[in-house]
Design a protein that fits this description.
alpha+beta, Methylamine Dehydrogenase, Chain H, Immunoglobulin-like, 5-stranded mixed β-sheet, 7 helices, 70 strands, about 15% helix
Length: about 1050
Amino acid sequence: MSLINRAFHQVVHQLLIATLLYLIYFLVIPQELSAQTPGLSGINVVVNRISTEQGLSNSEVNAITQDKQGFIWIGTAYGLNRFDGENFTVFVNDPNDLTSLSDSFIWSLYVDREGTLWVGTQYGLNKFNPATRTFKRYFHNPENPQSLSSNEIRSFYEDRAGVFWVGTARGLNRFDRTTETWTFFLPTPNDSTRPGDNFVNAILEDRQGNFWIGTGNFLMNGGGLHKFDRSSGTFKHFWYNPSDQKSLSDNWVTSILEDQSGTIWVTSDAGDVNKFDKVFGNFTRLKLPVAESTNLNSGTLSIKCIREDNLGALWIATWGWGLFRYEKRTETFMQYTFDAANPGSLSNPAVNMLYIDKAGLLWAGTSRGGVSTVATKPFLHRHTLGNSLRIGSRVDDLFTDSQGSFWIGAVGIGLLRFDILTRRFTNVLPDGTGIKMYEDATEIIWISTLDEVTKYNIKTGTSAVVWSIPSPHGSQEWISSILPDKEGFLWVGTNGGSLYRIGRNLKEYSVFTHDTQNPKSITAGPINSMLQDQTGIIWIGTTEGLSRFNKDTQSFSRFTHDERDSTSLSSNYWCSLLEDRSGDLWVGTSDGLNRFNEESLNFTRFYTADQRHGRFVNLMLEDNKGRFWYGGGSNIFMFDPAAGSFRSFDESDGLEHVDVLGWSLIKLKSGELVFGTANGILVFNPESVKVSSYVPPIVITGLKKLNQTINLATLPELMSEITFEHEDNVFSIEYAALSYDMPAFNQYAYKLEGFDKDWVYCGNRREATYTNLDPGVYTFFVKGSNHDGVWNEQGTSITIIISPPWWKTWWFTIFFWVSVAGSIGGTLRYVEKRKLQKKIERLERERALEKERVRISQDMHDEVGSSLSEISILSELLKRDMSKSEEAEIHLRDISDRSAEVIENIGQIIWAINPRNDPLDNLVAHLRLYTADYIRKAGIKYSFKIPDNIPAYHLSAEVRRNVFLVVKEALHNIVKHSCATEVQVRVDFLQNQMIISVKDNGEGFSINQKPGSGNGLINMQKRIENIGGTFKIESEPGQGTGITITVNFIV
């Protein structure tokens, strides 16, 4: 755009600009930009209503307190309520139960130092026992002077010495804890005209040890403030005197407070707030700024209670005018009352009492309106004219220069500069669309519009267009980021992904673009941000990742998202940049925040817990405490790098509802942050943003089985363990973080040790359910946080015992295993007995068999052998005597031969059945002896090879006999049929096998045409197979014959 066009636009928008200048000058600058302390007219609070619709037993609330566990107790006109932030447990009088409340109308509540809850009712005093969920009652007994002086209990107090005091409708009572008796004191015991003096509404011991009671009632004459001397039992009275403006403003004293500075404040039902002067013993009356038109109930102003919050401000409860907050430093009031059109206002303007819990939350008990909690919010202070400026136009950029001037670039209005020194505005450009601003070290402001760069001289106030996007890109791209570096170069990034480095003369330039073929080119996408770090390195963030420029090589290093690498960028999209005070580089993306690790060249990721909000990190700034701030939508986000935690702020935190833009944000010299919005700016001081540091107690609030609530005799938080039966296969544990400011935002995590491997983060869900757990002992742990994300890491726990079914109980298990052991033992004994019996029978059979074998061998040797020997001898003799007859000789020779064979066979039989020959080495020796004797007689050369070591096996008679007979038959065939000249017998042992081979060098034969009938070979094979062995024969004509016997040993 030319200067003429700019002038034209300036004229066109003159009226709009003038209006904007007026607003900024008169509304914003005097308070925010001049670093003046804004006048305080109030604070941002959020009111939350708790009513009978949520479970409160009655809407008339008279008393509230918090016990040591953190539960809130609420006393109403009908019933006592214990509140955990979501659910109520209600206690009322039961006429048939003497351990129930003595009466359902509650006037007062108190928790003493031992944690005991005391309940004052219309009829009697009650001490609560949480272990049994019962109450012990104390009553007035006219016949017992050591009983309570009245049944109407109005107030409590425990002094520094631990003495417990009770204020009643008739006097002050001191409790003796040892004897459980009472001593009562009356401020005016002898003046029956002033019964109100004895109606004790409030009790206080100040830091000097003075003891004060406030008395009075609208139905009675008298009342006032009384200083009680506990040693003498006497009172000093402070009463209302209509002629003395420094006296008490009214005798019906409703509450007494000593603030943080030691000042005593006294409220009266019909009058003012009274500030007590301890030195002069008189009062200064503080009048509330009320008008009769603001009283929503009929009657005069009635003050019911006064309390001091954690910030030192006084809260005053009135009947009809709601609440007043009094800032003592500025002596200003802020009123909060009921508004029928605003659900965020008090539930009722008639406030009966006030209570401030351990977290600093204010509780207001109202008449017929239940409870209203009043929370002071993180965006605490509300400026007189608000903390935002609405100009009806989008703010694209914000900037503050080295001289403290404030710049606003707004769409349709232009670029405006306010000079702090001259307090005058300058309209620098008539159009603020797409403006980006940056100041270099020479106090030159570089301003970019859509396609041009303007150089603005702060000292002279002059400006000139010095560079435009070169053609043809000028009509296709616009400037999205600018950066003047420390060396005098101007860097310009565009939405088209072009990066220009413009020389000092503003004429020469270099352009860098993404090249898909060059990994050292810049990342693709529009250039959103640029930064030069403390070491001089230029970083460029685009919509496709992060690039680092190397000026020596004129190339880039890329950093992008990798789904497989958790140390890569969390996302490529956007990539905004920030260098913190320690020099760390941070990269904001569309999915989280990343801290760059220079040594490892990777990133550490940080995310908000809510995946829907706060993940998109646009432009961000660091405040004076090192915290990062960024915005988006209706939220502002704070990140604490030290804790690695995020905090989101919205309307519920007192933030005004605006549409926060993410790309326009600055920090003023005062430390205030300014956010650009869709129609103006939002200004706040991060130093004044207060977040809760309260660590909420975590308690177990309920137990369920089979989705039904278990009615317990003891309150759940006091239980250390719970047992579920086997059939209770679905059970639930309810829990709560006892932080009552926005309890719906409290967060939880739980873990069942023994089942869950890790913590289960369940958001704001307050119940954990488990099903079908195995019998055993488990420990349930739960931890939680308040709404500001402050976690109670210690949490609480409860032991869960899952009882086994009867068939898995210890006694049944013992019985079962004893029975099994008995059965097994009996069976084993029976089996062993049978095995032993069979073994004995086998041994007896073997012994008998062995004996028989010995006998047979002996008989055959003695009888058959002897007879055959005689035949042989006789045959020899006959041969000699009958030499003349050749036939006789032949017959006799046959007799002799047969006799010899009989003797030999019988000898072999005797050898086979004799158990002394069972060892394996006996078989080998016998084979060797027989082979040598038989083959030698045939005149055939032989060899017999055996191993050096023969295994120590024993063979049965059957095995020995069959092996021997097969070898014998083989040798016999060699002698009779083979015409062999050499025989080789070999015995080998392989593991549990014996291998015997017999080979000759005879004529051989064809296996398919066996010699003779072949019965001999078949018998040999059968013999070996009968003893579980294998028989193999090999032979070829002219190649000899060989047999191989393999026999398995049975160990």
